[in-house]
Design brief:
Number of domains: 2
Number of strands: 2
Strand content: under 5%
Structural class: mainly alpha
Order of helices and strands: EHHEHH
Shape: elongated
Helix content: 40-55%
Largest sheet: 2 strands, antiparallel
């Protein structure tokens, strides 16, 4: 491989051209794709580029379709959520006591 070049290794690209992004979304035309982007149905290109992030498209379509990501919360996130819930319960209990007085 020559210095300063990128070898094509049959890697599935994450960044897509406008035409590739439109085809990925099965838009019938580039103008239909542009319309979806303009209307906020699909995200625009990465700022400062003319490339669309395939994961951003997927995430947007998942959200619009009612699908939720299947990312498991970390042990810290679980602990933090429990701590926040306990703090909220303590706060609401204190508010109820104050109202009863």
């Amino acid at each position: 491989m020559a210095r300063g070049t990128v070898e094509n290794l049959a890697i599935v690209p994450r960044l897509l051209t406008r035409q590739e992004a439109a085809a990925y979304c099965r838009c019938e035309s580039l103008s239909a794709f542009s319309d979806w982007v303009r209307r906020g149905i699909l995200p625009g290109p990465i700022p400062g580029t003319h490339k669309w992030d395939k994961k951003a498209i997927d995430s947007t379509l998942d959200r619009l379709s009612g699908l939720e990501p299947t990312i498991e919360p970390s042990p810290f996130d679980q602990w933090k959520a429990e701590q926040d819930a306990r703090a909220d319960q303590g706060h609401s209990h204190h508010v109820q006591e104050t109202r009863q007085r």
